[in-house]
Amino acid sequence: MAEFLLPAQKPLITGNKTPADVTRDICHALEGRPTPLWWGGFLVALALLLLGALAVSYEVATGIGTWGVNRTVGWAVGITSFVFWIGIGHAGTLISAILFLLRQRWRTSVNRSAEAMTIFAVMCAGIFPVIHLGRPWMAYWLFPYPNTRGPLWVNFRSPLVWDAFAVGTYFTISLVFWYLGLIPDLATVRDRLRGGFRHRLASVMSLGWNGSFRTWHRYESVYLMLAGLATPLVLSVHTIVSWDFATGVIPGWHATIFPPYFVAGAIFSGVAMVLTLVLVARKTMRLENYITLRHIDVMCKLLLLTSGIVAIAYATEFFTALYSTNPYEEFAFMNRAFGPFGWAYGIMVGCNVLTPQLLWFRKVRSNLWLVFPVSILVNVGMWFERFVIIVTSLHRDFLPSSWTSYRPTPIEIAMLLGSFGLFFTLFLLFCRFLPVIAMAEVKGVLHVGHQAQVPGSERHPAQRPLEQLQTAAVRTGEGGLA
Amino acid sequence: MSRRVVVGVFDDEANLLGVTQEARAEGLKILDVYTPYAVHGLDAAMGLRASRLPWVCFLAAITGAALKLWFEFWTTMVDWPLNIGGKPWNSLPAFVPVTFEVMVLSAGLTTVFTFLVLARLRPGKRPAMLFPGVTDDRFVLMLEESDAQFDLVRVRRLFEKFGVVAVEERIEEAGCPGEL
Fold first, then answer.
1. What CATH fold (topology level) applies to the domain B3-50+138-172?
2. Where are the domains of chain A?
3. Hey, of A210, A439, A467, which one would you mutate to test binding to chain B, going by the most B CBs within 10 A of its CB?
4. A4, A129, B82, B114: which has the fewest Cβ within 10 Å?
5. Is the Cα torsion angle A161, A411, A49, A51 positive or negative in sign?
6. Where are the domains of chain B?
7. CATH for A30-444, among 1.25.40.10, 3.40.50.300, 1.10.150.130, 1.20.1630.10?
């Protein structure tokens, strides 16, 4: 019961760390030589990236005919992977911006890696629509610019144009938000390291940060505003992605439920990817005191919640189709679940709705050997969700004479694997060159759940007069009874 | 212009908050405080005003959205109107998503850029470090020796009450820490 009443009193960071310990522990990963495990992972990721690069080069040189798409199924693995990667990115923004506004202080341990994940995922996502253009060197036609053809402007009523703006803005703002958070930590790295590439990198990139509180004061204000901007932005991005489908007249796509359904699915898949990454990072980089079982526990609960929302969306979609009495709608959904791609629908429901139910049990949530496979299965399931939405809606359309099937070619599979290669190559490089945990933020939550322990201090911030702490909480949007 | 400053180094957030509050209550001039992280409540202790950057953000958002909306109307209604599926020239609801995205982009980039300019942060700038360790675990309070009334002994006693680690007197040149 006490635990229920005083959740904030449990330590966020274990092991009685001091600020100096935080600097040492986090910078340690940047200073030593990479472990054989890192090299192994990096080489595998690089090999996949190379495979993907070859596949993309071949596709660009030859044409879209190298894919399994046809006249009926015009979108398949390419667009599935685009929606999948954009969705992965959304959890990073959830953790960095939405949980910041909700004053969830546990986010400090995972926000840096989650934001990095967002940026790399959006990079992977951006590749797919561009190569799907067939003539990717003309991708700039998506943006309005003065040209000699009139000038002929883009059609601002088209969701595909909205998408270009949404993804572009999302990538830019995520990158700026991530970099802003990195500046104080880069200054720490700069002051700690003596010479070497990382020191030079940190010296240039830390912009001359010297810890002045007048700067910190403005910085906090900017951080809060960016969080406030990123929150509606992330909701808008997957809403717009869902409009790519929902504004079409295809049964199975043309549904008003799509925006919330897509946003929930995006956060669901993203949290699963964050879990996958932090479980590996905490083990291989010895960050058990920073990413504790409590962090894993809350993320599992988040996964369970979003799984529930996704399950309701699946059920609602089905119900609406049957209730509409529209034969095309009814057929699309019966075909989706029981047609030739019923196996994909089965994977989707099994991985996204059934598997996460295991997380109701505390025993499962605290057993990382179970959490890890669950997070992987959710990733698989969410990829198949997009595949089901796209391919099953298209392959049997209005005219039975144009019905067909779809089978991905090795080129498409290689491109999908290549996107994973790009993602993990970038993520592993990030782990080697930048602090994976936001040191300056973690230092600020060290006292949570600890009594005053630093020798020489009479009073601890947690025991300071409430009104003073509240001033800070109102200003920064953090603190309070997080 | 040079000036004399007194610098106190502390090793704990609570002590720093305490000494800052008392220094301000005693009427000492606090030039700046250097901390490894954003200490909650320190802005109140130093008596800093709320930042005016939200206004920059707001104005940039309004400007960006207005310009984009104008541009969408201009391209689709004035410069080269194209009949696309019989949709009206004035398709305001369809213009909202891009307007929103441009609003967010303009507000975010302008705010961050203004912050960097105001805080005088730029790539490759040599940091004016007051004390090594302020980016690690040290907290530094910098007071100005403003006039003849300034009593170093009293200040030293105040610092010692809060477990000061080191006290230094320095002469600062213009443009050094504390100028911001």
1. Alpha-Beta Plaits (3.30.70)
2. 30-444
3. A210
4. A4
5. negative
6. 3-50+138-172, 53-118
7. 1.20.1630.10
Residue A460 has a pLDDT of 44
pLDDT, tens digit (0-9, with 9 covering 90-100), for A230-278: 999 999 999 999 999 999 888 889 888 999 999 999 989 999 998 998 8
Query: Is there a contact between A98 and A179 (Cβ–Cβ < 8 Å)?
Result: no
> Hunting for tokens 């070497």 — which residue is that?
A196
Which of A9-23, A122-136, B14-28 is the most confident on average? A122-136
Distance CA B109, CA B104 (A): 8
Q: What is the pLDDT of residue A123?
A: 94
A324-328, A347-351, B8-12, B176-180: which has the minimum mean pLDDT?
B176-180
Q: B174 pLDDT band (50/70/90 cuts)?
A: low
CB neighbour class for B37 (10 Å; exposed up to 12, middle 13-18, buried from 19): buried
Q: Does A458 touch chain B (CB under 8 A)?
A: yes
pLDDT computed for residue A309 by the predictor: 94
For B:27-56, CB contacts with A below 8 A are 32-46, 48, 50-51, 53-54
Structure ipTM: 0.89
